[in-house]
Amino acid sequence: MALQRSSLALQHIALLEGLPPQRLDGLAQRCQWQSVAAGTPLLLRSEDKSDVFFLVSGQLRVTTYSAAGRQVTFRDLQEGEYFGDIAAIDGKPRSADVVTLKPSVVASLDRSGFLELLRDEPTVAERVMRNLAALVRQLSDRVIDLSTLGVQNRVHAELLRLARVAGIVDNQARLDPAPTHAELASQISTNREQVTRELNALRRDGVLAKDGKALVVADVQRLASLVAEERGFA
Fold first, then answer.
1. Sign of the alpha-carbon torsion through 172, 177, 181, 187
2. What SS3 class is residue 75?
3. Edge-to-edge strand order for the sheet containing 168-169?
4. Cα separation of 156 and 75, whole Å?
5. C-alpha span between 152 and 221 (Å, rounded)
6. Distances (CA, A) of 129 to 62, 82, 126, 188
7. CA–CA distance from 92 to each of 86, 96, 116 (Å)?
8. CA quadruple 43, 144, 209, 222: dihedral positive or negative?
9. What is the bridge-based pairing of β-strands 32-36 and 71-78?
10. Facing residues of 97 across strands?
């Protein structure tokens, strides 16, 4: 469903923070706006499109599927983030699928408009470079984990990452709603049964606890110590 263009909504996009009102107004008019239901594919891997998307509200997942049909999840995106910049920068097909996890509102900017923005606004260009550098580091860490850690260790590392994203208070973090076992499995390249086994072990040890629909990391320091030992940093 098409939506009214709104420069006010773009003020909440971290990439565009601090841009003058006239620039935001111009971007809002140039963008295509849409409201998308949960479970809807927004981008498809190998698709020959190069728009950049701003997530005004909702939640998305960047993922892909192997030839055998196994899902591999890269990351989840929250409101205020952007995506699609890799194809916009190099002009090549999409590198992953993007699907909505919740009803979402997105604004898409065509490739020429995005490149023009980078040329005209050095601060925005620097933010894009920093985000790409962070993505490279994140994916490098993930390759190392997948190559060197067993399933148990990968479960620990992913739970610690989710705890830090959710926010740690008094050595605890609340994941609400709790990620499904299948979702965790797709994040760390394993199967649901192995994830279930490791989560049950962590609950028995008091590291995890259930609270309604939420999963509580009850002892973040202990989980961090386990991850450090497994990675050889202890």
1. negative
2. strand
3. 168-169, 172-175, 214-217, 208-211
4. 17
5. 17
6. 19, 13, 5, 26
7. 8, 12, 18
8. negative
9. unpaired
10. 63
The token duo for 107 is 């604004």
| DSSP 8-state code for residue 14 | G
The whole-angstrom separation of Cα 31 and Cα 34 is 10
Could you tell me how many residues make up the chain? 234
Q: Which residues contact 119 (CB under 8 A, 6 or more apart)?
A: 125
* Residue 143: strand, helix, or coil: helix
Q: How many C-alpha atoms does 194 have within 13 Å on its Cβ side?
A: 15
Name the pTM for this structure: 0.74
- Identity of residue 92: K
Q: What is d(CA 213, CA 46) in angstroms, rounded to the nearest whole number?
A: 36
At 2 the pLDDT is 47
Contact 60, 83 (CB under 8 A): yes
Residue type at 41 in one-letter notation: P
Which amino acid makes up residue 83?
F
Q: How far apart are CA 12 and CA 55, in angstroms?
A: 9
For residue 177, is the peptide bond before it cis, meaning its omega torsion is within 30 degrees of 0?
yes
What is the full per-residue pLDDT of the chain (234 aa) written as tens digits?
445 677 889 999 999 999 999 999 999 999 999 999 999 999 999 899 999 999 999 999 998 877 667 777 888 899 999 999 999 999 999 989 999 999 999 999 999 999 999 999 999 999 999 999 998 998 888 788 778 888 899 999 989 988 998 899 999 999 998 889 988 988 888 889 999 999 999 999 999 999 999 999 999 999 999 888 877 655
Rounded Cα gap, residues 214 and 15, in angstroms: 31
